[in-house]
Amino acid sequence: MFNSVKGNTVVVTGGSKGIGKGIARVFANHGANVAIIARHLDAAESCAAELSNSEGQVRAFKGDVTNRGSIESAIKQVVSHFGGIDVLCSNAGIFPSVKIEEMTNENWDLVLNTNAKGTFHAVQACIPYLKKAEFGRVVITSSITGPITGYSGWSHYAASKAAQLGFMKTAALELADDGITVNAVMPGNVMTEGLEGMGESYLKEMAAAIPLKKLGKVEDIGNAALFLASKEAGFITGQTIIVDGGQTLPEE
């Protein structure tokens, strides 16, 4: 199913680890050509090497979504290598914890510039190429934190994730005439490298708060992104898919 992505070129920003790596793996396993863009080229290359046995080609590119020139350069390199872009998975994001009382302008700007402005930069850079695609797709990695829930220490992160969804809705309207859809995936608690060192008791506590009693896998987010990027999802735009194991369902 969703074989329509086979042979398509998929850009994944922040694709060298965590959810981005899971997204890259899912698309590569379904025969897409995947361009992993990350700030650190060595990390992107390591990820590309790990996924080299996938059905699709995987290549690494250096790009910083906070810098318009950097991401534009990376996108041009992707097009030069693969010949075009069909799907953008705007995934790059950071989540350093800082309480509001201690937060500096620099703390705030770093997160908003990466998560919200970085999404704008990536989408803008890809638009000329998405217009040329048979069916252009943008899939944004947002979060349940901000649009639905809150989490202490993440006010700047929450604001950035809510901002992504506001941007998504207008982008979906503006790009509809070109047949480009713009949607978002909203992950809940997902097992990534960043959580592995938190200890078994912490992970069990997190899992206990989820009705399905387990943390999500990065591939769970990748599978949702795969659907939204498929030809079959062509009549869906400006929408979100929550992938949280039911985490946001309980009233208490």
Automatic annotation (TrEMBL):
Q: Say yes or no: keyword Lipoprotein present.
A: no
- InterPro entries, alphabetized: NAD(P)-bd_dom_sf, SDR, SDR_fam
Which PANTHER family does the record cross-reference, listed alphabetically?
Answer: 3-OXOACYL-(ACYL-CARRIER-PROTEIN) REDUCTASE (PTHR42879), 3-OXOACYL-[ACYL-CARRIER-PROTEIN] REDUCTASE FABG (PTHR42879:SF2)
Q: Coiled-coil ranges per the record?
A: none
Q: Which gene encodes it?
A: fabG
Which Gene3D superfamilies does the UniProt entry name for this protein?
Answer: NAD(P)-binding Rossmann-like Domain
What's the name of the protein?
3-oxoacyl-(ACP) reductase
Family to which this protein belongs: Belongs to the short-chain dehydrogenases/reductases (SDR) family.
Q: Which GO terms describe its molecular function?
A: oxidoreductase activity
